[in-house]
């Protein structure tokens, strides 16, 4: 069943806070070289191929192996078109009234196996993802093919220039390319091998992977940014049980938590017992939803869907489920976390987002009109 066709959505809360913890005695005045970062992982990722997965379980350990053409500046708290910086692209510009995006690439960049990086790799990557005609290989799973549906062709006039030709202007394409799900793959390595190993241009390269135990990255001595990275490596320790992962952080076995899983309550507890823990709070732009099949009774009745929407106390949900570690919002994050989301005063005007007491009374009235009540409760299948 395709959700886009058959499922209605009720937004409960958005902008769930992501709390990341690092062990540190004090903020350093300047970066220092050396050391291994012990990072938490919740278990083996389904594969090591970012382009074939839709989970942070793959991005978390693999993004340090690769580079994008462009990337949202990780030092900026808010991601927007204005915070995009170059990685493998040293510059870019729009041409043809917004229907061509031209990238000028860095020279002298090498893949981890020593082969040179060229525009051929960029064309190969995005022809692979968009399933371009004539491609001899395909991704086993392709969750982001639609991202590039507006791309009509990718041209490489020379080894260090790439041109994305678009069917119509699409300013947002640059932001899709800045996503953590948009790394550049080597054209000389088949997708089947990328699922089990990393051949990238990134600051770290794969050293060891023992399934169920640990994935180890080591410093790339040939990284194109001189003097980087500072770390000697990163160790992703596989710990399936969430409570055990939290205990590992508390004891100092690991230095950083898995993204997005540390609740506000756990964060507060850890900070009390470990005052040296550094907390970084940011947003991860995830919505909690209730999906309704509106093609079948009883939810094919719009009045009933409205009653359900009015009956949900979203602020109470945020407190009960997320311990206050979320915000009530619509489909997009508001400022200061996002750019385009509705401000709080506008959200409060939406059905289901206002006074919960008044809205629950209205919901009961609608349900009564539809024949539901104490003697005939609404029954649904979850």
Can you characterise this structure?
With 382 residues, this protein is of the alpha+beta class. It folds into three domains: 3-14 and 286-369, no CATH class; 17-42 and 203-282, Periplasmic binding protein-like II (D-Maltodextrin-Binding Protein, domain 2); 66-187, Dipeptide-binding Protein, domain 1 (Alpha-Beta Complex). The protein is built from eleven helices and 14 strands. It has a four-stranded mixed sheet, with helices on both faces. A four-stranded antiparallel sheet has the order 6-7-9-8, covered by helices on one side. Strand 6 (89-95) and strand 7 (100-105) form a beta hairpin.
Question: What kind of assembly state do the chains in view correspond to?
Answer: single chain
Terminal CA distance reads: 15 Å
Any idea how many domains? 3
Which of globular, elongated, flat, extended, rod-shaped describes the shape?
globular
State which percent range the strand residues make up: 15-25%
- CATH topology of the largest domain: the name is Dipeptide-binding Protein, domain 1
CATH architecture of the largest domain: Alpha-Beta Complex
Instruction: List segments where confidence is low: pLDDT < 50 over at least 5 consecutive residues.
Output: 1-9, 14-27
The order of strands across the largest sheet is 3-12-11-10
Specify the helix fraction band: 10-25%
CATH top level label of the largest domain: Alpha Beta
CATH superfamily caption of the largest domain = Dipeptide-binding Protein, Domain 1
Q: Major sheet, described briefly?
A: 4 strands, mixed
The Cα radius of gyration reads: 24 Å
Order of helices and strands: HEEEHEEEEHEEHHEEEHHEEHHHH
What integer is the average pLDDT?
90
């Amino acid at each position: 069943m395709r959700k886009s066709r058959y499922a209605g959505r009720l937004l409960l809360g958005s902008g769930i806070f992501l709390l990341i913890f690092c062990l540190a005695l004090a903020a350093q005045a300047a970066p220092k070289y050396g050391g291994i970062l012990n990072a938490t992982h919740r278990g083996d990722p389904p594969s090591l191929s970012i382009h074939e997965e839709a989970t942070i379980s793959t991005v978390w350990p693999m993004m340090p192996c690769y580079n994008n053409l462009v990337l949202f500046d990780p030092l900026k708290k808010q991601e927007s078109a204005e915070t995009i910086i170059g990685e493998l692209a040293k510059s870019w510009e729009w041409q043809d009234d917004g229907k061509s995006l031209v990238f000028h690439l860095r020279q002298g960049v090498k893949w981890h196996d020593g082969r040179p990086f060229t525009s051929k790799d960029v064309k190969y990557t995005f022809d692979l993802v968009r399933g371009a005609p004539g491609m001899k290989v395909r991704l086993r799973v392709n969750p982001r093919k639609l991202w590039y549906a507006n791309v009509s062709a990718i041209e490489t006039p020379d080894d260090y220039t790439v041109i994305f030709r678009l069917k119509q202007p699409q300013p947002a394409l640059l932001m899709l390319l800045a996503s953590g799900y948009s790394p550049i793959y080597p054209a000389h390595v088949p997708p089947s091998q990328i699922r089990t190993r990393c051949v990238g241009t990134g600051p770290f390269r794969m050293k060891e992977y023992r399934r169920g135990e640990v994935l180890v990255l080591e410093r790339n001595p040939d990284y194109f940014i001189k003097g980087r990275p500072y770390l000697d490596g990163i160790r992703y320790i596989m710990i399936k049980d969430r409570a055990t992962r939290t205990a590992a952080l508390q004891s100092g076995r690991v230095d950083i938590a898995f993204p997005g899983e540390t609740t506000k309550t756990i964060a507060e507890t850890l900070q009390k017992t470990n005052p040296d823990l550094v907390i970084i709070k940011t947003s991860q732009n995830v919505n909690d939803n209730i999906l309704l099949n509106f093609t079948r009774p009883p939810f094919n009745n719009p009045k009933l869907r409205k009653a359900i929407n009015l009956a949900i106390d979203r602020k109470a949900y945020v407190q009960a489920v997320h311990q206050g570690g979320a915000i009530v919002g619509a489909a997009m994050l508001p400022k200061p976390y996002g750019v385009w989301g509705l401000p709080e005063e506008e959200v409060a005007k939406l059905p289901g987002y206002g006074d919960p007491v008044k809205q629950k009374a209205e919901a009961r009235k609608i349900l009564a009109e539809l024949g539901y009540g104490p003697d005939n409760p609404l029954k649904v299948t979850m």
